[in-house]
Amino acid sequence: MRINNPIKYITMKPNKLTHFIVTTVVGTGTLCCCTQPADELSLWYEQPANEWMQAIPIGNGRLGAMIYGGIEEETIALNEITLWSGQPDSTQNDLCGPENLKKIRELFFQGKIEEGNHLGTQHLSGKGKSFGTHLPLGDLKIKFEYDTETTEEYTRRLNLNESVSTVSFKKGNTRYSREYFCSHPDEVIAMRFTADQPGKITTTLSLDLLRQGTSVASKKGLVTAGIALFPNLGPGGVSFNGTFNVYPNGGEIIVSDSTLTIKGANELVILADIRTNYQTEDYPQICFENLQAAANTGYQSLKQRHIEDYKSLFDRMKISLGTPTEDIATDKRWANVKSGKEDVSLDALFYQYGRYMLISSSRPGCPLPANLQGIWNDNLACNMPWTCDYHLDINIQQNYWSANVANLPECNLPLFDYIGQLAKAGHETARKVYGCNGWVAHTVTNAWGYTAPGGGVGWGLNVTAGAWIATHLWNHYLYTKDTDYLRTTGYPLLKKTAEFFVDYMVEDPNTGYLVTGPSISPENSFRYNNGDWCMSMMPTIDRAIVYDIYQACIASAEILNVDADFKERLERDIKKLPPLMIGKSGKVQEWLMDVERSDPSHRHSSHLVALYPLGQISYTQTPELMAASRKSIESQLNAPGWEDTEWSRANMINFFARMKDGAKAYESLLGLYRVFSRENLMTVSPAGIAGAESDIFSFDANEAAVSGMSEMLLQSYDGFIEFLPAIPDSWDKGEVKGICAQGGLVIDMKWAQKRLSNAEIKATREHVFRVYLPEKWGVPVLEINGKKIDANTDKELYDITLSNGDVLSITYR
After folding, report:
1. What domain count does the chain have?
2. I want to staple 557 with a disulfide (CB 3.0 to 4.6 A). Which of 430, 461, 567, 627 is the partner?
3. The pLDDT of residue 27
4. Any idea where the Alpha fucosidase A-like C-terminal domain is (predicted)?
């Protein structure tokens, strides 16, 4: 169907973004359960969502929506990634300065920890005035009229194969169907409502913008939203335009002051777009032209283009983790797992759901990367102390841990663009706050280039937070081996990151080490001389991250044959960094000093970034540090009152996978389901955390769980590829296609009884590598492009050279 001309449309005129109020809708009528089976790549339900955390997410990276599937009243909760309050803050860097920094450091070097913390707090506490937050747009409400109250055969579904959400049910003799998708190629949210009997679509559309002080007026289908400000979030905010074009087939149109009613239509299509002035002042015209182009394309072509675009990413991987379990509704399967059961099919679904969510929230060309909620803002996180922003002390990193290994490298691109924005803003912070070249960003950032320390030094002075997110630039190269990317994007940003630390670090007169500081180990403090202090020189997180950045720059300069002098400087300085240390307690030291945490139960494990994700600790290279890492983790988990959250539980999946403990890794995955997820399989920061009155969706654990599950199946960080390094008993047999390893390698593998049966390693670049094939699995047969080879071996490590396009086959007899 071509939809060249809308009969009527609803549009929101340009407006200033403001604060929203939560609204929930419950479907009414008599429901009869449906026994329709679902394939293994669908989330499906037998009833509408009663609240946001039961709704189904769709998105295209920029636009997002939550579909409730209500019968009498449908709710579509709407988001756009640049809908931000706040504005740039010209005073953010009016802190510290080189002379004060020198005085603070002198106190620490003299062992005056208390005085150093007092002076550091005075000069390094951020004073952001207009930080703002990401906010939801509001809800599109669609009320329906029917001939009967009884509802039968209701099914609500998200098809992960196609990224299409559907609702289907019967009212009397009429079958009603709905489709929803969010198109990346055409940049619209598309909705289609049909019935198998003519003239049965009668509906009224309205907008609930969830805001204080909003006025709504209508004239010939035009709905405008009045301006309202929320001063608690500071001045500023984007201007925006949202348009909802309505295309009924048949029926009558009735326009009231604030609604648009379609009576007796055979079919209804709605196309929606939302634009802001975040990047352009022409956003109203862009919105209008984009919707006109989508209408000219036609609904079926829009859907086909959307599916083809989505499948070009999603279909790269397939995963099965054992014998499929009983095919029942997703919320029932979720409830069964929460009650103590296991469901390996749900494990595989959860993995692919995480990939779906990353595709839906981070696509090339998006103006901002996924934030703390991806792109699905529940109107709760933005009202919490942490706001809905970009936390760089682990959370945004977790959002993107899975991108490369789960064969979605393009999803990194919005993050890399954002790192480029931070580098520009962070250059001024580096210069004014520290007197250094390069760039720096701390714990919290926003859409407006905030890179100064946060308001409390205990959480806000993570001086390597920006560098940590920059390590993703090198990781992307390790997986893709894309030299053009490294030359144009990766290395220039990595070099600027390193330039800051070349200027910033100083030699400790007591040890001769090059150290950062004053800095923190987020968000922990330590006991020293009967006091609790957070700031010190060179906490372990800083050492691990600086080491990774320097190593990346040294390797990049060699690969690209550039910057010989800079490379030589880094090679000299990296030798002066302190080593990772084991304290008298047998744990990895969290600080350069051998001190203990003030709160052993705190959720952060920042000193173990060397274990994961940075891979500086391994059984083959540093077995003592691996043992100390395990003791650190066990001490934290066993501490009374262990402060567990969704992201810390997902973090544990990755930690235990690196420690090759499949049982503990799987236990953490099950714990994530049972404690920190909801019926729609979205992970949550639970009620009670930081004063939250209800569950709040947090994107980080959905994605970090995918990376952790990948690490359980395959590892390639330690100089060789290892199959099934942390396989739990529950995944005793399975198959994975399309998982990625460092070196531009794509791998298919199949196993039974926790033993590899066969594998194929496909090279996308010329690469020399090692693969670990343990003797306990038997004698492997190796072939390259169908020809048997005899590879050099060293204690079960096989040396392999592949050219671009080559395939190494491994078969166990």
Report:
1. 2
2. 567
3. 24
4. 715-792
